[in-house]
Design a protein that fits this description.
It holds the Pfam family AhpC-TSA. With 166 residues, the chain is an alpha/beta fold. It has helices at residues 2-25, 61-76, 93-106, 156-165, and strands at residues 31-34, 40-42, 50-56, 82-88, 114-117, 124-125, 136-140, 146-151. The strands form 2 sheets. The protein has a 5-stranded mixed beta sheet with strand order 5-4-3-7-8, with helices on one face. A hairpin with a 5-residue loop joins strand 1 and strand 2. The longest helix has 24 residues, at 2-25. It is globular, with a radius of gyration of 19 Å.
Length: 166
């Protein structure tokens, strides 16, 4: 009899296991660490703002090519509840430092956004390994919920969606 009840409970147990990863994926995104400027950062502190969170690398041509567009949109939404957060997945901090040195000399302060390095000792997130294809971006609404995910180039519709969420 014990064997029958164990077998009867097996489908329920398997169903619960199948749902567990989905439930974890629905948790609010969490990113924390230090910015490249050395300031403490927690994504949760941006609740009440629309956030575009992008994982990228200086070695990713698509990522670098998108930066001017990202900067223009960021500047265009100045004064609105919008923030861009970039997480560099570069293997070496030196690669990001070299890139940032160029940005510091060439990009106006009002067009710069929050930047973290995933290799920094205190960095952590609950989003898992970014996709095989960079950039990997998450659009987060004012309540802190991921509403869109983008692989590769950020589509034009993403900017419409951001405007809608603002």
């Amino acid at each position: 009899m014990a064997m029958k009840s164990t077998l009867a409970a097996l489908p329920l147990a398997l169903a619960l296991l199948a749902v567990a990863p989905f439930a974890a994926a629905q948790a609010p995104p969490a990113v924390e660490g230090r910015t490249v400027d050395g300031k403490p950062f927690q994504l949760a502190s941006l609740k009440g703002k629309v956030v575009l969170l992008m994982f990228w690398s200086t070695g990713c041509a698509v990522c670098r090519d998108k930066m001017p567009e990202l900067r223009q949109n960021y500047q265009g939404w100045a004064g609105k509840p919008f923030e861009m957060v970039l997480v560099s997945t570069d293997r070496r901090m030196k690669d990001l430092d070299d890139y940032e040195a160029i940005i510091t000399r060439t990009v106006p302060l009002k067009q710069r956004f929050v930047q973290l390095w995933a290799g920094e000792g205190g960095y952590k997130d609950n989003l898992g390994t970014p996709a095989v294809q960079l950039p990997a971006s998450f659009l987060i609404d004012k309540s802190g919920k991921v509403v869109e995910k983008y692989q590769g180039r950020i589509p034009a519709e993403a900017w419409d969606k951001i405007a809608e969420l603002l």
